[in-house]
Amino acid sequence: MTVVKNYLYNIGYQILAIIVPVITSAYIARVLKPEGVGANAFTNSIIQYFLLFCGLGIAYYGNRQVTYVRHNRSEKTQTFWELQVIRIVMTLLTYLVFVIFMMFYTRNKVYMWAQSINLIAIAFDITWYYQGIENFKALVLKNSIVKVLSMIAIFVLVKKPTDVTLYISILAISTLLGNLTLWPNLRKELTKINMRTLTPWIHVLPMIGLFIPQIASQIYGQLSKTMLGGMVSEVESGYFQYSDSLIRIVVALVTATGTVMLPHVSNIVSKGDLKQVNNLLYKSFNYVSGISFSMMFGLAAISLTLVPKYYGPGYDPVGPAMMIESIIIVMIAWNNAIGVQYLIPLNRVREYRISVIVGAVVNLIINIPFIHFWGLNGAMWSTVIAETTVTLYQLWCVRNSLSYRILFRGIWKYFISSVVMFIIVFWMSRNFAGTWMMMGIEVLVGIIIYCLLIIMFKAPIVIQVKDIISRKFSKKN
């Protein structure tokens, strides 16, 4: 039941991570206006490239390596400090490069300096360690407090369109504080160590192996915003940001299983039980399919009504863009299950790396013509095609180690249930008043229709949930 508990902790945090931006982004959209939102989105897309180099692939690599040695306190301590030394060195080098970059950069300089606080914050980011030891409770509780405080700060301090710098600073400082809150617990986890015994550089090459796909992923994660800001306008970049933000919030719920399953599966791999690894992947893939199809079609059904009501006037283009981008919810759910929960724990990093690189190359090639001819919607289709390419390549990679018949068992049930739900909810959305109460009714109707249909179809996810509940109930008795 450890996996279930960790998933519930993680999903609880993701729900909070949804509530905070859901509340604040609607407020910020009205206060900062599309121009301020666009300036933040554009400058943040640039700082993300620097953050990527600070990370150097430690998120997945550190998670996995700590999992391998988590039962040996001295080895765990050794691994932690070796990886942390690399992170600090990379942060210092990256910040130096950023300072040099700012000598030549002339656009929104004040915003960029505010964004650079994120570079300092990443030096203290040790979430990978807590994920590796599967201590999601500490990770969730401490970050949750900081998120709530940052939300309060935004409402109290950000009051006018010129407060863009203040808004960026609040977000960055809250990230820094959230990371710092995780350090005091280390006294109970780690032993004393002689820093002279550390050999951090033995990790560099394996980390680069996971760093390369992160670079590629960042290309089609941030490049569209950067290119929209450069080729069209910063306002278009802001539209992309607001569509992408809502989609990624939903994606975070779906991929929460990946964060929990990576250390768990890595632990099973270290014991050599590959049959259990495959069985876990089949269950996880089916679970994320059942969740992601409903979320994809559900969000698409209400997007045209949700956006103008939620963000206010001036954001109408975000609605159609969100309908297009909602497709990636299923694609990311699938490639997260195969890539993060299967290929990485099995140390098949090369295949994972190539899949993301292929997606990035596809995104880069089609971004220019798509954005040139279709602007915002073109960027969205480019993102969808890139994520689909990643998923298809990963499915091809596992063709000899997994059974497609078992992997896709019951998927049609989720698809049909979701399409029926979409038709009914979309019709309601276009024919009734777009009030908050009406949208709440639409969401409730969608959930009821989807749940009834998958129960009627006896979809695998229903059986999985029943098994979990029955096991939990039998333990209590």
TrEMBL record:
Residue ranges of the TM segments: 7-29, 41-62, 83-104, 110-130, 139-158, 164-186, 198-220, 246-265, 285-307, 327-344, 356-374, 380-398, 410-429, 435-457
Supply the alphabetized keyword list. Membrane, Transmembrane, Transmembrane helix
Give the bilayer topology. Multi-pass membrane protein
Q: GO CC terms for this protein? A: membrane
Keyword check for Transmembrane helix: yes
Q: Where in the cell is it found?
A: Membrane
Q: Where does this protein have coiled-coil stretches?
A: none
Q: What is its main location?
A: membrane
The answer to whether the entry has keyword Acetylation is no
Q: What's the protein name?
A: Oligosaccharide repeat-containing polymerase
